[in-house]
Amino acid sequence: MSRTAGDDPKAVRKMTEEVEIPFKNLPPGFAEQVPEEGRPAPGSVRPAQPAATLVLLRAGGGTPAGEPATDVGAGMGPAEAGTGSEPGVHLEEDGPHLEVLLLRRSPGVSFVPGAWVFPGGGLEAADQGPGSREILGRLDLDRLAGSLAIPPDAPPPHAHLVAAYRETLEETGILPASRILPAAEELPAIQTPPATAVLPEARSVSAARGSGSGGLEADAREAGGAVTPARSRELRRRLLMGEASFPELLLEAGIRLDGAEPAYLAHWVSPELEGRRYDTRFFAVPHRKNEPGSPQAGEGVEVRWISPAQALQLHQAGELPLIFPTLLTLQALAPLSSPHAVVQHFRRRPIPRILPRLHRTPRGVLMVTDPAAHR
């Protein structure tokens, strides 16, 4: 039985039913790109590229839920303009409601323009290169590997998490789950992991502990253990300029990404009829700082902290265009009250591989999944 997304959040929480999004609730041009119903001819399916997405979580507070956190016209967040919260302000772990960070994609991008999405993107070579394991610090990478069940010929599990964090920094200016390494804590030797899948080359050119940090490490350590919003923006600038890879920048600054425990939320694979396909792992991680973030020029036009329930209400009203993975993730999060509740809930939940089929209907776009798609 087909259901219209938004009618009943419980109806699609298992992510196994038919779900339809009306035309008015889809990003501009999305329905026109959905191929006619059918299955691909043998040998015509393009491979799905490995990708990762991050759902940033915080307890309600700071910027009111649903209020834009950026100056859209200037492409600059309040903190960048000098009118936002002071660096290093932290939220309480629990609050009256859960909020997530959504990014509205620029109308000029080729992939889902105008859609509200979680930050994310494709894996790069540096995400599994030297230093990529070290920047995850004390995280239990064995448990992560067990949860993701990555095939041996794919990038290693930790590379997916590194990519999710890197893409979040690039697209929102927020460095998730970060902490400053105490000066007394010994820096481990950089390990060069064995090569697996071939990924796009990173933009890096500098050495992991070179002298070109521009005072990055000293300034970060002076923050008393917290990576300030200003420091995150400087890291993003250097990363996008190609001055260093993501692991190199964090090693220079003595930063580790083990300040909060991530949760593995979902595994989505693009429909087989699509020309541009991704094999995407969704993660979530609590973010305690009152940090609004700001969009990456050319990629996004707005970032917004909002409760899943309010995001779903705005979507149903046609004011928040969503695609299926974002919609169903919000519906899965809506009953949960705090970042801690999200991590605990998904830690106990098996995560299926979702390979949907899409086709147009007279009312919108229908997503269909079946047991064979969860292989």
Average pLDDT level: 77
For the record, the CATH class is Alpha Beta
Got a strand count? Answer: 14
Share of helix, binned: 10-25%
Q: Note the gap between the termini.
A: 22 Å
Assigned CATH superfamily: Nucleoside Triphosphate Pyrophosphohydrolase
Count up the helices. 10
Percent of residues in beta strands: 15-25%
Number of domains in the coordinates?
1
What is the helix/strand order?
Answer: EEHEHEEEHHEHHHEEEEHHHEEE
Describe this structure in words.
- With 375 residues, the chain is of the alpha+beta class.
- It has a single domain, classed as Nucleoside Triphosphate Pyrophosphohydrolase (Alpha-Beta Complex).
- Helix content is 23%, strand content 19%.
- Strands 3, 4, 5, 6, 9, 10, 11 and 12 form an eight-stranded mixed β-sheet that branches.
- Helix 8 crosses helix 9 (324-333).
- The longest helix is centred in the middle third of the chain and has 16 residues, at 157-172.
- The radius of gyration is 20 Å and the shape is globular.
